[in-house]
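Hey all, sorry for the wall of text incoming. These are the two entities for the joint prediction.
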Amino acid sequence: DTGVSQDPRHKITKRGQNVTFRCDPISEHNRLYWYRQTLGQGPEFLTYFQNEAQLEKSRLLSDRFSAERPKGSFSTLEIQRTEQGDSAMYLCASRPTGGETQYFGPGTRLLVL
Amino acid sequence: SQKIEQNSEALNIQEGKTATLTCNYTNYSPAYLQWYRQDPGRGPVFLLLIRENEKEKRKERLKVTFDTTLKQSLFHITASQPADSATYLCASGHDMRFGAGTRLTVKP
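and here's what came out:
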C-alpha cells in the first residue's frame, strides 16, 4: 500500500502524559500536513511541512504541541502534558509540490482520560 | 473573519434522488474549492476540485459548481445510492480550511 500511513491508529492515555504520533506520507510528496478533527467538525489545520521545514503553524496550536519532519520523509506529532480537550482524531495528509490534492491517512484517534 | 461553512449538518434522501450539498465562504476569495468524502473512522478522500474560473465540474455521478458572486459551491450526487452515505466536506484553496461537513444518508 503506497498511501499515507499513521501509527498508532488508536491511543488511550491519562491526563498529563506525553504522546507521540507518527505519519509516513506518500513517497516523493514534499508537503506534509497535520490536522485535528473532533466529532461533528471538519479537520482543523495544525501545521505543515515542505520537506523538513515547518512552514506554518496554526495560531490556535498550544505550545504543548510540537511536530518534526527531520529528514523530510516521515513526521511525528508530540503532545506534552495531555489534557482531556486534546481527545480527537489526528489526521496526517501529504501533497506533492505543485499539486492541489491532499491525500489523507487513516488518522490516530486519541482519548485522554 | 474568514469562514467556510456547510449549512446542513445532515441530509436524508431516498435512493435514486439527487443529493445537493452547499458550501459557503465569507470574507475571502479562494482560488479553488475541493470536496472530500469521509467515512466513519477514516480520513477524508478527495473527490473533486473546482477553480474560481470554472462554473462546473463533473465526474461520473458527481457535479460541483462554483459561484463567486454568491460565494458558494454546490455539490450534487445524481442517482444516489445507499453506498453514497457518508460525510462530505468542502475545503478551500491553499489554506485547506475545511467546513464542518454534511452527513448524507441515502435510504433504500
